[in-house]
Specification:
117 residues; globular; nucleotide-binding; Rossmann fold; NAD; mainly alpha; ATP binding; 2 strands; single chain; 6 helices; NMN_Atrans_arc
Length: 117
Amino acid sequence: MIRESLLEENIDLSSIYLIPVPDILMNNVWVSHVRSFSPNFDIVFARNPLVIRLFKEAGFEILIPPPYDREKYNSTLIRRLIIENSDEWKKLVPQKVAEYILKIRGDERLKAIAGIY
């Protein structure tokens, strides 16, 4: 979904890596864990205070992206709107994300998890 959204915005992906990193719940080795999954990097983009602290302590440059409206762009709200059959959720995600969720029948899966058939 992230890749398709970036492409939709005409962002050149030739120097961008999207790498899923499983959480290990061990702060003391988190930075080395992330580095083991990644090519070399010098800059970390983060808003999470713990992530910022850990990478800053490890000597990385930190760039903090501007804040966004967490009341509006909230995964719990978006899932609730999907479960309630409200099309409003589609306005809260990039078009490619909405298409992908529908393609994989994510709306039906959420309703099944919520016990709505």
